[in-house]
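We were asked to recover a plausible sequence for a given structure. The inputs and outputs are reproduced exactly as logged, with field labels preserved.

PROBLEM: sequence recovery
POSITIONS: 886
GIVEN STRUCTURE:
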């Protein structure tokens, strides 16, 4: 009887049943106000109707009233546990909050009640491919295919599911089976069919069956069914190369070069098949260089307008042949005034001796060039139409000097770099690139204020250029002028809503630079707000996949879809994510150990009360109680007003006011190490090859007392950098030192015997079988060698002080010997000074080091060099000086 009564409550009368269908329609058409009104009408008649309660909750969720939404959906589910609609709606709520695991559970429960519900199966399949649950995705797509075998999308999705599950043969069989159902391809579907054939060839290629893949391509091409001829030709070249058909592959790559001779992938493919590519980490043999020279002489004749055919030889040529090729290559850049020349040639600086040869080439240009380019064949400037034209390009001599300015800055010869850039500015005061290059030179030299002034000058010369605006804002951030940087960036935002506009544009460089600037000023809340905004962007990138799971299947852009999925799988390895996550981790590390805001307030209040008379203390407490009551009333009124505003009625949710614009709540977290650990877990999964990831992981785990995980981070750092890397050395010593404080076996707080054995074994391996003191001493001996690595000296000094504090003077002396070393960078010397000041605690030595460093880094803001553009303004942080150079 009770069950029957419950069922009666879930059965709607005819009128209310029609209203319920209207609720669903209003939800689908985003008419949320009408949907709520209809739901209230149904609930007035049947207040315990579970599906109506669930739909009302789903509608409220779209109006950002999430707490009410969850309450109503749970209430509806409780009222009707056997309703697939309630479970489906519950899953939709979880999906909207990106809690995909719980959403999948709800969908599975819904399918237990209605196993053939196509909409729930589709929603489940979307979540499974989003979560890369490939085996579950295969099962769901198979079920959908069985229900609707006439639907093309079900066949294609089933093939994609098997492809993702690495069941390549089955995926091809599914595509073949679907193709067998087709009688004739109408012209309107020719492109889709072409994509399906190319996708089949791609599956076979990934399955390690290049011969079958090539057969598919050749058959389809012969039947004139391929529409993307370029994509097919690229794949055919790869397959021919994989099969060892060198002659055919060479002909195909030459065919591709005829289409686009500036595509470097085609050049790499041609070099690879002719066995002319250098070995990894190696260089070309003399025979390879000769064959490459002959090959590119031929390609230049075939493609005389291709820049790649002229640029690639600069990589393998040496000596005089390199100089001749470089001279011919750069002439069009100098004649036309192309500012990107240095960026184009920058990679050559990694080749031994080529930097000096480039300097020789450009210095000879400088000597021979006249005011209009005469003196060098091929660089004569055309006669100007109007000598007074302010927009005409400067002569080739100016561009040659601009290159030399960047060249000397790259070699850390700031004096000569500035000499050349001043020549450029004097000869062409209207050339924006002159001031942009000057800003970069001063930045590299450590003059952050001078760099900001030069970047601002460049920006002021073209106020409509967003790139110049961004460069100036970045320079202001690095100089510690946060407000100026923010107002500069705001010039290109809409509606005077700078913060939200930059967030909506996912302007990650801005958020990272802003976060670093605030972190340097110990403004932890604002720093976290910006760093975590970047991590939210990446979460949005992952969420954006949902837009393509159905679209790409429907349009049959399957190759692009698979590329998208692969991109999304590694999206968190993007440098922007790493920079933001590491920045946030460093802020959390700073917050660790500091008292929370509540603790500070309580301590301050306690001190204040202690200094008061009893009567005064009583008045203070009464006043505080009234103030708290007033704040509580204001908060309740604000919440009620917000609820009324939402009820009244927008068609959709608007932008809510940020309740924590300055990140105060983020900085007030009770568990900063826990928050840091969440980011570390992602970094370890997606940026495991970066040294910074494991250094940050070590810092977090060591502070949490997770010695085994800290040891793991230390071993990973050693695997990346080798035993000679300063960070690997530092982490090895620190984990060994921390392990000394672990209680012995049998004592309270001792490690598990197995863990203890593992720790000791791996620490012994890290220390190369030596004692911790001997290991550090050996490193110190290698660090004192003349012209040794500055970073190695810093690591040796820091660890010597940690292991043997009584040898602190020796550690200080080790660093002072590096002050005359010109091989170190500005950032390294800044870190060295901070080590003396903050770790070794020797203010006199730090002052001496700073004075000597100022002689070498004469333009440095941090070291107050005598030739810096201007003194550092109030508020410029020391930390910014080192951050900006890294």
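RECOVERED SEQUENCE:
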């Amino acid at each position: 009887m009770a069950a029957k009564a419950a069922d009666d409550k879930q059965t709607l009368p005819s009128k209310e049943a029609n209203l319920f269908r209207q609720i669903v329609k209003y939800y689908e058409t985003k008419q949320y106000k009408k949907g709520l009104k209809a739901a209230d009408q149904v609930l007035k008649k049947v207040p315990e109707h579970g599906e109506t309660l669930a739909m009302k909750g789903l509608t409220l969720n779209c109006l950002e009233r999430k707490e009410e939404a969850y309450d109503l959906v749970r209430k509806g589910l409780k009222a009707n546990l056997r309703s697939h609609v309630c479970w489906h709606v519950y899953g939709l709520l979880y999906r909207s909050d990106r809690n995909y695991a719980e959403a999948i559970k709800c969908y599975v429960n819904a399918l237990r009640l209605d196993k053939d519900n196509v909409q729930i199966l589709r929603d489940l399949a979307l979540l499974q491919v989003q979560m890369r649950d490939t085996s579950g995705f295969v099962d769901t797509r198979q079920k959908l295919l069985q229900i609707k075998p006439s639907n093309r999308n079900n066949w294609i999705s089933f093939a994609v599911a098997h492809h993702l599950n690495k069941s390549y043969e089955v995926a091809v069989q599914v595509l073949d089976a679907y193709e067998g159902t087709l009688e004739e391809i109408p012209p309107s579907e020719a492109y889709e069919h072409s994509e399906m054939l190319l996708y089949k060839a791609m599956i076979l290629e990934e399955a390690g069956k290049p011969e079958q893949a090539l057969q598919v391509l050749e058959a389809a091409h012969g039947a004139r069914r391929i529409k993307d001829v370029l994509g097919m030709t690229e794949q055919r070249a790869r397959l021919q190369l994989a099969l060892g058909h060198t002659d055919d592959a060479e002909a195909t790559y030459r065919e591709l070069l005829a289409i686009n001779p500036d595509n470097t992938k085609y050049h790499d493919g041609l070099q690879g098949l002719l066995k002319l590519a250098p070995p990894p980490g190696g260089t070309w043999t003399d025979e390879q260089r000769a064959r490459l020279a002959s090959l590119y002489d031929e390609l230049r004749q075939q493609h005389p307008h291709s820049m790649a055919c002229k640029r690639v030889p600069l990589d393998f040529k040496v000596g005089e042949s390199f100089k001749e090729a470089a001279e011919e290559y750069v002439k069009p850049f100098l004649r036309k005034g192309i500012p990107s020349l240095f960026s184009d040639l920058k990679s050559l600086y990694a080749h031994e001796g080529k930097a000096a040869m480039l300097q020789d080439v450009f210095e000879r240009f400088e000597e021979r060039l006249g005011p209009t380019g005469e003196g060098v064949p091929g660089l004569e400037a055309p006669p100007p139409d109007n000598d007074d034209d302010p927009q005409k390009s400067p002569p080739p001599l100016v561009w040659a000097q601009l290159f030399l300015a960047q060249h000397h800055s790259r070699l850390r010869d700031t004096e000569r770099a500035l000499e050349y850039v001043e020549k450029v500015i004097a000869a062409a005061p209207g050339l924006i690139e002159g001031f942009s290059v000057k800003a970069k030179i001063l930045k590299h030299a450590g003059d952050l204020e001078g760099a900001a002034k030069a970047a601002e000058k460049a920006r002021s010369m073209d106020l409509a250029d967003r790139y110049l605006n961004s460069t100036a804002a970045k320079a202001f951030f690095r100089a510690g002028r946060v407000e100026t940087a923010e107002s500069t960036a705001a010039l290109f935002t809409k509606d005077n809503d700078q913060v939200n506009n930059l967030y909506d544009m996912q302007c990650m460089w801005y958020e990272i630079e802003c976060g670093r600037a605030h972190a340097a000023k110990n403004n932890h809340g604002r720093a976290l707000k910006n760093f975590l905004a970047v991590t939210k962007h990446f979460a949005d990138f992952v969420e954006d996949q949902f837009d393509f799971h159905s679209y790409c299947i429907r349009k049959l852009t399957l190759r692009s879809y698979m590329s998208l999925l692969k991109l999304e799988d590694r999206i968190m390895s993007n440098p922007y994510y790493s920079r933001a996550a590491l920045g946030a981790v460093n802020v959390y590390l700073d917050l660790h150990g500091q008292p929370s805001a509540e603790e500070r307030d309580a301590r301050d209040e306690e001190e204040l009360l202690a200094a008061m008379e009893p009567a005064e203390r009583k008045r203070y407490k009464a006043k505080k109680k009234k103030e708290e009551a007033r704040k509580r009333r204001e908060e309740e009124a604000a919440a009620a007003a917000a609820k009324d505003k939402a009820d009244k009625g927008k068609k959709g949710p608007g932008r809510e006011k940020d309740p924590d614009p300055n990140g105060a709540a983020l900085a007030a977290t009770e568990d900063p190490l826990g928050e840091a650990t969440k980011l570390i877990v992602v970094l370890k999964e997606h940026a495991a090859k970066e040294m910074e990831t494991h250094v940050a992981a070590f810092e977090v785990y060591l502070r949490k007392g997770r010695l085994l995980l800290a040891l793991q981070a230390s071993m990973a750092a050693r695997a990346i950098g080798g035993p000679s890397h300063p960070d690997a050395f530092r982490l090895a010593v620190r984990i060994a030192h921390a392990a000394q404080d672990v209680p012995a076996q049998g004592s309270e707080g001792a490690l598990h015997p197995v863990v203890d054995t593992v720790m000791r074994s791996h620490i012994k391996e890290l220390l190369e079988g030596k004692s911790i003191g001997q290991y550090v001493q050996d490193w110190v001996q290698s660090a004192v060698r003349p012209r040794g690595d500055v970073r190695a000296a810093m690591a040796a000094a820091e660890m010597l002080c940690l292991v043997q504090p009584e040898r602190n003077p020796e550690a200080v002396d080790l660093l002072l010997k590096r002050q005359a070393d010109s091989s170190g960078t500005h950032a390294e010397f800044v870190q060295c000074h901070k080590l003396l000041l903050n770790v070794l605690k020797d203010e006199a030595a730090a002052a001496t080091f700073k004075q000597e460093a100022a002689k070498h880094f004469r333009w440095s803001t941090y070291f107050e060099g005598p030739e810096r553009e201007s003194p550092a303004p109030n508020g410029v942080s020391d930390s910014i000086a080192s951050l900006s150079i890294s």
